[in-house]
Amino acid sequence: MSRTGSLYIDKDTVFHNIDGSIKLLLWICWTAFIFMFMDIRIFIFMTLIAFLC
Amino acid sequence: MLKIAKIPFSTIKPLLIFIIIFTLFNSALLLIVTPEYGSQITGKYTVILKLYGFKLTAETLFYAFTLSLKYISLLPVTLLFIFTTNPSEFASSLNRLGVSYKIAYSISIALRYIPDVKDEMTNIINAQEARGVAFKKGDAGLLKRLKNYLSILLPLLISSLQRIEVISNAMDLRGFGKHKTRTWYTRKPLKSADYIFIIVSISLVLIGIYLKNTYFTKFFCLSLK
């Protein structure tokens, strides 16, 4: 946990350099995508992408 | 994504455990309240547990498992957002989208003070432990420890309200809200990577709509027979 006063971890990666609102858009779209389905194959695929990539 | 963002697993492990416990609890409640819901959706009835009037079907169990995995699949992106977004930069980027700077700043403050509230909770627990209140395993039974944890809520609430008062006074003294617009110290222009992620995000939704209408139209349930 950052002592600057947030959960933010300061590193130089692609995700750290993306604008906050774009990450919010990605989160909204990811959530919308997940909530469209009730299929375990989709969820396993998305979880693996997110955790292993 | 979490690997690319270089977020250490030790950081996300407690949150992951919390979410897994939450989803298990959620699934257990679902199985108790609606033990035949999965069967109602699929039309198949494979009873795996029969206890007095209570009948649990395999389809409902699979439905609960699918639902749990649905929640877990939302976790990585949420963690990615929390751990890679600087609250100040996020507030300025929200303001650029047209969100009022007062709302943007309140979101920024909420993100920024989560660790402070956590520290405050640790301090209260330490203070209570010094007075002989048991919080650790072995010092008291589970129910007693849970009751002790409830007793920290009131001091935590009061200290949070005091913190809010200090912050709001500081903001008032600096003239926060006097003008309709404000400048931001951490405002950055959008780069090519940002545009790529906009395209990726919108494509994800479009692909989802396509898949929903073609291949993954209904609840998928593994055939158990």
From TrEMBL, chain A:
The chain crosses the membrane at residues 24-52. Keywords: Membrane, Transmembrane, Transmembrane helix. The keyword Transmembrane helix applies. It comes from the Bacteria. This is Uncharacterized protein.
Automatic annotation (TrEMBL), chain B:
It comes from Fervidicella metallireducens AeB. It is a multi-pass membrane protein. Pfam families: CbiQ. The chain crosses the membrane at residues 12-33, 61-82, 192-211. Signal peptide: none annotated. Keywords: Membrane, Transmembrane, Transmembrane helix. One of its GO terms (cellular component) is plasma membrane. This is Cobalt ABC transporter permease. The lineage of its organism: Bacteria, Bacillati, Bacillota, Clostridia, Eubacteriales. It is found in: Membrane.
